[in-house]
Amino acid sequence: MAYETSHDGQQRIMNHLAHSVFELSDEEILAEVRESGVDPQEEADRTSFVLRRAADTWESENERLSNLGHTINPNYWRCVEGIYHNYCLSCGSLVSFTTAAGEMQGEALDGRCPERDQYTIRRTGSVS
Amino acid sequence: MAHLLSFIDTRPQYETPQPPEPRSQPEPPSLPPTKSINTAPKTALVVENDEILVKLLRRCLEDEGYTVRIASNTEEGMRLYGDFAPFNVVIIEYDAPQRNGVKIDYFLPQTSGKDLASDILKINPSQGIILAASAYGSPDELSLRQELMHIPVLIDISIFQLRTFLATLEVRRAMAALTVPDRLRLKRSAAYWIWTRGLGRAAHNRTADDLLSEAQLRTLIGAEDTRQGRHWNKDVDFVWHLTEAMRSISTNWKRQSEKEAYLISELPTHDAEGHEQSPLENVASRDAAADRSLVAKGEVARIFRMFTDDTECTQVLQGWYDGLKPNEIRQKYGLDEKRFAAAKKRIRVETMSRRNGGGGGEEYGI
After folding, report:
1. What is the structure's pLDDT at B38?
2. Out of B139, B322, B349, closest to residue A35 by CB
3. Distance CA B104, CA B94 (A)
4. Are residues B170 and B214 in the same domain?
5. How many Cβ contacts (< 8 angstroms) between chains A and B?
6. Distance between CA atoms of B350 and B365, rounded to whole angstroms?
7. Domain boundary among B151, B176, B201
8. Testing the interface with B: which of A36, A50, A75 to mutate, by most B Cβ within 10 A?
9. What residues make up the domain containing B337?
């Protein structure tokens, strides 16, 4: 139990340090970033870019899967060793998503879902 | 029988030392007051003339908490948009007719749905739009202008797919509402998590951008089981949600790196003369708590060493280390509010700019 002190103390320092930026007012954080020699607008834009890129990746990968006719339940993603796994509700084929690569892989991406109409509704007079 | 037995490993079995067990983290400091951008009711406009699809979309949207307005043609859609915009989401049928009573000829290109999408984007470029094109076999069959290329297209419409796109739109909306200081706080806290966990480029090739991106992706995956994704409870401020996600992700990365280091320690190594050493010489201690404590001690010493000439910074660090509250730190060391804030600022600035020993702003992607 004596070992806990160093580890917990270290964790507390880390948490305080990372959270201390949230104690700053808008003006203070802007000033602090400027003082560190960084353009606040540039850094903020870079942050937006990173967040947007992640959203674009997720959306386009889901679109790719969806356009092959596969249907996955977004609540069924399961993470194993950093890789997210799911399966098509219609045909059962597997799909995985690796956040580091930002890419979906698996047999579901190999082709169109053979049971694509099981969960989807198509427009009357469909031409496909 | 002898043949079968030859497959059985009869060598003595040794117990493999197990990697350290994950343990719970100390509670983070109390949360700052959160501001939620999500208290307003969510609204959706659906431009669709197929009754079955209207029913499905309405049900799905209402289940997700949206108030739904329906237009059965693009003229009506534009009128409703003009009267009630902005909407959280506008779902437009690619083949929606311009006005009712006009029979759709599926062998002729129908353009009014995409025209409406273009017109709405001219009015509000950040309006979240989803194009529904369930009469088609693939998005390649659609003819979309440049400004519509980034819009998600639903070919096979299901409740599940719609939910995924709606959730992504909500995250995009929260992103668009982030102010410059919000984004700076996110970036700086990401950099601190990377630095304080010792995950920088010199050690584990991680940057603040990697951590931000990971937190965002896990939010988007958003499985309701928090052990699997990072479900965003919409009552929680998005900035605070991402910060907490980064805290737990960086903790997991740290554990993972400790586990990897442990496994590597079991590989045979060679001494200076090239003789193979027994893996047992490299196996980490069986006492995981002792190992973790040793590592923590080293990291704490590294932080304290930066401020050997700064008494007030050392006092603040000591107070944090001891788990004291801000007012207790100030009281114990006789620091007024101004000096306390100044010391915290020096700690932030110094740790962010520190480059010796493989760790500065540059390393964390700042």
Report:
1. 52
2. B349
3. 12
4. no
5. 264
6. 16
7. B176
8. A50
9. 287-366
